[in-house]
Amino acid sequence: MLKAQGADDSDNTAEFNVLCRIVRQCQSGFAEPEPTPPAEVSTLLTSIEKAFFLATATQAEFESNLTSNRLGLTKTDRMLPRSSGYKTLIEQMNNTLFYAKSFAEDATSAAKTASEEAKEANKKLNKALAGTEKKLSTDDDSPVYFEDTNLKDTYGDSASNTKNCRGAGTATYSTATNTGTTLISDIMCLCIAGPDDGKKPCAGGVTTQAEGATIATASASTAKASWTALMKICPKDTGHATTTKLTADLATFRHSIGRQARRATSNQEHARYFLGYAANGNSGCTAANSQICVNYKPLLTGDSPNKIPWLSEIESAIKKWRWHQARKLRSQLSKG
């Protein structure tokens, strides 16, 4: 049987690393397109309107619009001569103008919809990260997640180690309803909320603090300092979030749950639902030495299993973004 170790040897580093990557993508968000169509659409429509005007305007209308500079008319522009095929040509040009206007309207609507869809997807990433759809400051040195106005969003109602990290291996959902409420909450359970004697479950010299000072509301300054220290060992994402990267990281996260169950010296059947290391599966994620982890068992088992809230938000964001990308591709193919 494996011997329990002291939770001071980077036991939870691998789990933290994957959550770190997900955090950075949530902070970066998907690239939001402009709510207006490309300038080429307006340029195309204006050129067609100009051609139609030159073909149908009277001399007085031409001179009036030349003065007002409507449609970009210049003195070098000339009105279309009325030839024998003039009527047929005007009908064709009128049809072209009709379709051009319809295309411009569709492009404008599509751009607005795409922008709104991207914003909605990013709201879900924001909520997964910190429990609110609002985009909060991502300054690692001055984290706002632990301010009084944001604590409930970050940790849920009546936050505690039991409710957020899920305590004993036999805990039930009714007594521990905040686990998985946000990425931040789970990271604090995984790396910070532990014995106050300086353990380092997530490496980088970042030490644990008493859970009451990090999960509950006792000391925002302690939670802020701990988060800042953690983020110093969490590389920033240089680009926007992508569905490919998020999907890969979520798969790694799922495989990380229970990864260390074999190391538990007892009740491994409980530990298979833990994120991080616990020496005793029955004791669970109590924040005691060698029991610093996140227990998802009450969430994922029972008669009515629940989804991990932050994971569900990101999956929803991915689905919305993929739908947006698919619609964008269909639009491009239809133009071709």
Low-pLDDT segments = 1-7
Secondary structure: helix percent: 40-55%
Looking at how many chains there are and whether they match, the oligomeric state comes to single chain
Query: pLDDT average, as an integer?
Result: 85
Count of DSSP-assigned helices: 13
Strand ordering within the main sheet: 1-2
Number of domains: 2
Order of helices and strands: HHHHHHHEEHHHHEEHH
Shape: elongated
Q: In percent, how much strand structure appears in the residues?
A: under 5%
Query: Structural class, from helix and strand content?
Result: mainly alpha
* Number of strand elements: 4
Q: Main beta sheet: strand number and arrangement?
A: 2 strands, parallel
**How widely separated are the two ends?**
65 Å
What's the Cα radius of gyration? Answer: 29 Å
Membrane topology: Lipid-anchor; GPI-anchor
Main location: membrane
InterPro entries: Trypano_VSG_B_N_dom
Function: VSG forms a coat on the surface of the parasite. The trypanosome evades the immune response of the host by expressing a series of antigenically distinct VSGs from an estimated 1000 VSG genes.
